Amino acid sequence: MSESDFTVRSVPMLLSRNKSQEWRDIVLLRSGMLMRFLKTHNLLINVEPFDENGNVKDDLVIKKSHLTDDGLELFKKVIPGWSQYLDKGGDVNNINRLIKGLEKIRNQ
Q1: Which of 64, 60, 69, 65 lies closest to 30, judged by CA?
Q2: Is the N end or the C end of the chain the one with fewer CB atoms within 10 Å?
Q3: How far is it, in rounded angstroms, from Cα 36 to Cα 55?
Q4: Where are the domains positioned within the chain?
């Protein structure tokens, strides 16, 4: 019996939580930074997170099957902490947590 192909990030769901433009901008900025990181480090499979203008797609849904094993581990172990850092006012451009977390995963 195989595991289900669950959703790990849904931009439409995040956008639906608040209708303000400020919230929309935050969600798209954070999602864009995260998707650039995942794409740069070859953690995505068979999914293009950006539109023709280089913006994260506002209908983007990332499923388990869209991630390498390392990418899935990043969502389980590292991204929650990065998100908490951002929620407390951290700089979205500071991806050191993601970099260090991926290095740790890859060196296990």
Answers
A1: 60
A2: N
A3: 10
A4: 7-106
Tell me the two tokens of residue 103: 């290095």
Predicted local distance difference test score (pLDDT) of residue 3: 65
The whole-number pLDDT of residue 108 equals: 87
What is the Cα–Cα distance from 75 to 82, expressed in whole angstroms?
10
The DSSP string of 3-66 is: PP--EEEEHHHHHHT---HHHHHHHHHHHHHHHHHHHHTT-B-S---B-TTSPBPTT-EEEGGG
Under 8 Å CB-to-CB from 48, ≥6 apart: which residues? none
User: Which structure tokens are listed for 52?
Assistant: 């023709």
What pLDDT does residue 25 have?
95
